[in-house]
Specification:
Elements: H1 2-8, H2 12-20, H3 22-44, E1 51-54, H4 55-65, H5 67-72, E2 76-80, E3 86-89, H6 91-107, E4 116-124, E5 127-134, H7 141-144, H8 165-175, E6 179-185, E7 189-195
Helix pairs in contact: 3-8, 6-8
């Protein structure tokens, strides 16, 4: 469409103005392409190896990388991993999952209170369940449940919302035979649960 505008425009100023719009459009297209390629790689990577991961060790590295945001927002992080301190899962996927869910809790914090993020693992029927809870703005699951993990679906107005993080998280979890679901109340907060197939 932008190319058509340029071809049909005889005004040099107008042409330059249209050209200036190319970079963000191309950047967005490139980003979408890379996201789709990454998701396809996850679905087709049958050789990725799982390892025994000490969840707290990985968690501390992720939180250290988010130290500025955590401090700026006055976030409190509560961790309880005693019931199941390790999971058997690909390191790359686990790192991505933890980062995405914690980042969402910070991104969609409530303007009325400081964020509280609770990260917990527990053993249920010989499977490890990881939960990440927050007291943020929540999601209306009556309205958005069917689209919660779909690509390019966003549920709040936020400049950094891209609608890819939850889709990628679900893809990574299900690629390894796990399950992911959420409970949420608008204005109260959200909890994401991940059940790992093998522990």
């Amino acid at each position: 469409m932008l190319v058509d505008f340029i071809e049909n425009s005889e005004d040099e100023k107008e042409r330059n103005e249209i050209l200036s719009k190319f970079k963000p459009v191309l950047s967005s297209l490139n980003e979408s392409f890379n996201e789709l390629v990454e998701s396809l790689q996850v679905r087709n990577d049958h050789e990725i190896k799982s390892e025994n991961i000490i969840v707290n060790d990985m968690l501390q590295k992720i939180l250290a990388g988010m130290e500025t945001e955590i401090s700026t927002f006055g976030a409190k992080i509560e961790i309880d991993l005693n019931n199941s301190p390790t999971v058997h899962f690909p390191v790359k996927y686990m790192n991505s999952i933890l980062f995405n869910l914690i980042n969402n809790s910070l991104k969609y914090r409530s303007p009325l209170r400081n964020p509280i993020i609770k990260i917990k693992t527990e053993k249920i029927n010989n499977k490890t369940i990881l939960s990440i809870s927050d007291n943020g703005i929540g999601i209306d699951l009556k309205m958005h449940k069917k689209n919660l993990f779909k690509i390019r679906k966003v549920f709040h107005e936020h400049p950094d919302a891209k609608g890819f993080g939850l889709f990628m998280t679900k893809t990574q979890v299900e690629a390894m035979g796990g399950k992911i679901w959420a409970e949420s109340t608008p204005g109260i907060g959200t909890t994401f649960y991940i059940e790992f197939l093998k522990t």
